[in-house]
Design goal:
With 370 residues, the protein is an alpha/beta fold. Helix content is 35%, strand content 13%. The two termini are 31 Å apart. Bound molecules: aspartic acid (2 copies).
Amino acid sequence: MLPAGAVRGGWPLPPCRTGGPAPVLTPGISCLQGPGFGLIQFALMSSLRTHSALRFPHRHLLGIKDLSATDIDQILDLADSYVELNRQVDKKQNLLRGRTQINLFFEASTRTQSSFELAGKRLGADVLNMAVSNSALKKGETLIDTAMTLNALRPDLLVVRHPDSGAVELLSQKVDCAVINAGDGSNEHPTQALLDALTIRRRRGSLQGLLVAICGDILHSRVARSNIYLLNRMGARVRVVAPPTLLPAHIDRLGVEVFHDMRAGLQDVDIVMMLRLQQERMHGAFVPSLREYYHFHGLDYEKLSRAKPDALIMHPGPMNRGVEIDSEVADDIDRSVIREQVEMGVAVRLAILDLLSRNLPANSSAAGAK
Ligand code: ASP
Ligand code: ASP
């Protein structure tokens, strides 16, 4: 337990607002107070406190590829505690007080951007959303110009989505703050894979030994890539199920089994992860028609009947209902965890911001740190 006024990450925790018994302070929670000080909060405090000593050995979160199984477990354990926090009435914390988080989105997003925004605000950061497609980039600003502008704004945490694979990593080499990849081209979308893992782990207890089918537009999907890395690392078995035109060459080198037929691919799986047909990334025809795609590759009850009877249905969103997934299947409250995935998204992003903030320089803005 940290005493009142204790310093974590170099800056003092705020004093407790009420009098009474000495407050329990943790990095994630500043103080307990009022009539709501009950068992649930106490359990939540203890749980966040358990993780307070952890050190995350990465300055940025650029991809799952860079993470060990221990890193992943650590993120998921902390995220689990944040799920509980998110279900409280008072969700506001001070962990990032004084810090600035910029969400820099070169590509549209609803869930990812809004959950990063919520997470930053819940931890007390000043959060600025920059949608670059509407401004400087259109006028020819390069990524390097953007980095220089950002450095002048002195953020501590930068959340970036970019249409080009590798762009986020490049930017991370040019800016002075911690960078989180919120999706780069068809490369990685690490927080999506982490929130998927959290959803599965909470339902199934562990990822170890599960058989997971990732189905649909694997070729254009950063979600598929991050999930393949994560699931393999955590001891699950991965199948990819897609028509040959929607599979990258040599996908089998990533340690997955490849299927072209949905019924065969879904046989006995524990988890069915559907992917959106990413038509905005397709130049030319990858599928004969949407109707035919649905017929052969859309998830309906008939194809789903091949999976285990309690198999979970997942989708990162946004969904093309009637293209890759039947609407009723998507909304099936017994099988689909699609809405739960969105909830877990906020918890995972809270955990990532928390962990990366532990490595920020203590008393000044991150500018200058390398
Ligand atoms: N999961 C998508 C994203 O990464 C969904 C969305 O755009 O709403 O943002
Ligand atoms: N929202 C996810 C992503 O940004 C999946 C999708 O867009 O289909 O990659």
